[in-house]
Automatic annotation (TrEMBL):
Residues 392-453 form the DRBM domain. Its cofactor is FMN. It comes from the Eukaryota. The lineage of its organism: Eukaryota, Metazoa, Spiralia, Lophotrochozoa, Mollusca. One of its GO terms (cellular component) is cytoplasm. Keywords: Flavoprotein, FMN, Oxidoreductase, tRNA processing. This is Uncharacterized protein. InterPro entries: Aldolase_TIM, dsRBD_dom, DUS-like_FMN-bd, DUS2_DSRM, tRNA-DUS-like, tRNA_hU_synthase_CS.
Amino acid sequence: PVQLVVTVTVTVTRIGLSVYKMRQEDMYQNKTVLAPMVRVCTLPMRLLALDYGADLVYCEEQIDRKILMCEIKENKLLHTTDFTLSDGTVVLRTCPAEKDKLILQLGTCDAKRALAAAKKLQNYVAGVDINMGCPKEFSIKGGMGAALLTQPEKVKQILSTLVNELHVPVTCKIRVLPKLEDTVKLAKLIESTGVSALAVHGRTKDERSRDPNRTDYIKAVADAVSIPVIANGNSKNITSLTGAENFKKATGASSVMLARAAMWNCSVFRKQGPLPVLEVLKSYLRYAFQYDNNDLNTKYCVLQMLHDRMVETPEADRCVAAKTLQDFANIWAMKSEYEKILQQRLVLETEMNARTGGDCNGVKRRKMDDGSILIELPVRFEKRLYPLTMTPKQILNNWSKKSGFGKPVYTTIERGGDRYYSSTVLFEGKVYANPYWEKSKQMAEQSVAVACLVANGESDGRLTEPPNETEELRRKWRNLINSDVVDSGDHATLSVSCNNSSVVVDSSSDIHVNSVNNSVTHIDSANNSMTHVDSADSSVT
C-alpha cells in the first residue's frame, strides 16, 4: 500500500508539471512580439507596443553583472520599479501595466550568475530569455550572445539551471549557424533543457540586415522541435500585421518577433493597420514624459522613427539638436502636456512628503563633529547640460578669486566594492556634498562644485535647466541652507574632509571630519580599525 501511494503521488506530480509546462508554452503560441533592441526597448516603447497590440514585449538586453549591482527601488512618483546603480543610473524601469507581458532578456555566460540575476528580477517579469544571438563585439568578447552558439555544454548548463530554479518561463533567442544541420542540432539541444520557447533570427552572427533572412532555416527548426518557435529577422519586409502573419506562415513558426519594423513605426502591431509615424512619435513622447525617460534614450528613439523622413520633416533638424525632454516638448508643440505632467509630479511629491513628514526640498544641512556645517544638495554634473569651454569647477575657482575667497578644497573617497566616487568641497567654512556616487573622481568633484554654486545662488554655467529644478525650488534650498535648522542625525557618515586625499571606504564605515585642522578619521567598525589622515603634516595613522 505504501508503494502504491508513492507511485500515485509521483504520477500526479508529473501530470501537474506537464500541465504547468503546457501553460508556459501557451504563452508563446500565436503571439506578435516586440523584439529586444538595445536603446529602443525601454519602458516608453514597450508600453506603446502593448497599446498598439503587441502580445509580449522584451526589454533591451540586461547584463547579469549589472543587474546584480543594482538596487531595487519603488519609485512612488512615477509608480514604477527602478533597478538603479549607485550613481543613480536607471538600468531598468518597469511598471505594473506590463508585468504580465514583459520578458527580461539576459546577457550572460555563466549559469550561477544568470540565475542570481534572474531571481532578482523574476517577480517583476512574465518570463526570462537568454540572449544567444547578439553579434556585437561587446557580447562576443564577453562570451555572451552569439559566442554561446558554439558552446553547447554551456548553453545546456545555463538553460537547465534557470528552468529548474525559476518560477517563470525560460526561453532563449539564437541566430542560425552556417550549416542547417548544425542549427537544427542546437535547437534540439535547447529544447531538451525544458525551455518554453525558442526565438530564431534567420541570419548568422556574421550576417547583417542587408543579407537575406534564412526563412528555410527557421522552418526547419520549427519542424524539428515541439516547443513554440518565434520567427525573427524579416523586418524590412513587414509593415503591418498582414506581413507578420505571412512571415509566420512561411516559417511554420508559432509566433513572430518584430524588431526594426516596430522601431520605425510601433503601430505595426495594430490590427486596424499602422498609423502615421508622426502620430506614433507623439504617443511615444507622452510615455517618455510620463515616465521621465532618459533624454538621450528618448532622442535616439525619436531619430530612429524619423530615419527615412529626415528631409521631409521640418522638425527633424531641431530633433538632432535637442538635448532634453523639454526640447522635444517644445519641438512637437507638446509643451503644455509636458508641463502638466511636471506639475502633477510636483504636487504628488509635496503630498507624499507631507504625509511622511519628509523634506520635499531634497536638501540636507548637517552639523559635523567640529561644529562646522555640511550642506548636501540633490544636484549633479551632467556633461550634456554644460558648455565644453567652462566647467563648474572652473566657474567656482573664478568666482572664488574674483571675490577674494579662499580656494575651494576637494576631498574624494572611493567605494571599495565598485570603484565609484563621492566628493565634497570645503568653501568659506562650509562643506558641500551631494548624495550621489559617480563613475570617476572628476565627475564627483564637478558635481559638488555644482552643489556649492547652487547653494550660494551662483550660476553653475548650465546651458539648460533640469525641468524639476525650478527657481522656486532653488529659493527653498537657499532658505533652508541659510536657516539655523540642522539635521542632528547621522551627521558624520558622508564623504567629508578638508584636503585633497582619497580614502577608500565601504558601507560599514564612518567618516568623521574636522574642518578646523583639515583632518579626516575613517572608522571601520567591521574590522575594529581606524585610519586618521592629517593634511597638516601629510601623515596617515
